[in-house]
Design a protein that fits this description.
Two copies of one chain form a homodimer. Chain A has about 180 residues and is of the alpha+beta class. In chain A, about 15% of the residues lie in helices and about 40% in strands. Chain A has five helices and twelve strands. The longest helix of chain A is centred in the N-terminal third of the chain and has 8 residues, at about 55-65. β12 (about 160-165) of chain A pairs antiparallel with β12 (about 160-165) of chain B, so a sheet runs across the interface.
């Protein structure tokens, strides 16, 4: 995995892909599938929606760190599988044949098989709305990966795969930060 | 436009499309382009990131209502145009040849040309993070529309168009609310 400038990390998240969020609770790793995410600015800050209903939430609240790993369409069955079982009784890395990799800053693991990984610190938890605010502290992409298409959950059990790209950089020049 | 059950409204937003958000400030309509959105639960609640930097924010804060309109790929140049000029000096409905339609609940207009529209009330504004929490109060889709592909902003001036759909309803049955 190649390190990515933090100022570009939001471009991994802005299109709204389903992501995997890893935590480490002091004893073991866990992974949850999250579709409810939001970029908060042209900064490496993100929001995710989670709460007590996710086993990972306890580790997220206690250790205040996680990794957002971005899977691609070839991993969809793993992504759905991870989202439909619980870390309370399942070692999800073992069950779904994923490889944890130690990051540079946080104890939660990167996922080797993913297209991109973002190490994050918890900045704030807005309990009233179950919103967790994260700040990226390191980001990586796997430039060798051929499959780059992410998937977007519709919410009814169906998913939309990335299609063609359209370039509006010229029209957007006044709004996009320099260097992107 | 055909009314959509409120319990399904989140499925219009969960995949993370770029949306148009309309407001009415008591005198005139306005529209902003927003890519930073998040579903908050299997309820018709959403979060959007916005603040003083958007002219629409004053109306949103004052009147505590808006419409989220979901455009499709054939509207991309309008979407980008709306996002790169200001309602402070532009009548965006006129400039971008869009038709405001009165909704049932809020004063902010639906956009006739969009695939779907969601009338929303502001539930809360989390100023610290520029997060506005919305509750849907009515939702509509245009079943006659042929083009249904939405677009997802990457954040660098490029966009990803919806590609193929994949069905994982059976695997997801334990997680998806009944009736979806």
């Amino acid at each position: 995995m190649r390190q990515l400038q933090l100022s570009r990390a939001f471009t991994l998240m802005e299109s709204g892909p389903v992501v995997l969020v890893t935590t480490h609770d002091g004893k073991q790793h866990n992974i949850m599938t999250i579709s409810w995410t939001m970029v908060l600015d042209f900064t490496p800050e993100f929001a995710i929606t989670t709460g007590e209903w996710n086993h990972s939430f306890a580790a997220l609240r206690k250790n205040r760190e996680c990794v957002i790993a971005i899977p691609t369409v070839d991993m969809l069955d793993q992504v759905v599988g991870i989202g439909t079982c619980s870390g309370a009784d399942t070692d999800k890395f073992a069950r779904f044949k994923l490889t944890p990799v130690q990051g540079k800053v946080v104890k939660a693991p990167l996922i080797k098989e993913c297209l991109a990984n973002i190490e994050c610190k918890v900045v704030d938890i807005v309990r009233k709305h179950n919103i967790v605010v994260l700040e990226a502290v390191a980001a990586y992409v796997d430039p060798a990966r051929k499959e780059k298409r992410t998937v977007h959950a519709v919410g009814d059990g169906t998913f939309i795969v990335d299609g063609r790209k359209m370039d509006r950089r010229k029209m957007m020049a006044s709004k996009v930060p320099d260097g992107l």
